Amino acid sequence: MSFIIKQKKEDCIGCGACTSVCPNNWEMGEDGKARPKTTELPNLDCNKDAEEICPVKCIKIEESK
Predict the structure, then answer these.
(1) Distance set, CA 14 to CA 10, 31, 54, 63 (Å)
(2) Averaged over 26-41, what is the pLDDT?
(3) Tens digit of pLDDT for each residue in 10-21?
(4) Which of 16, 39, 41, 52 has the greatest number of beta carbons closer than 10 A?
């Protein structure tokens, strides 16, 4: 089973919560908003934590089809 990250980047407030709990896949962009280093995941790793900690809920992780 693999997963995909869907992010509503326009809703990101740049708080950095996702980058603090999952620095191996989340980084802050030049625009001050967070972004995933990759959107296709072989496993959830800490990305589920990033989804759950996001205060504006702009990160969604779904199973790949």
Answers:
(1) 10, 9, 10, 25
(2) 97
(3) 999 999 999 999
(4) 41
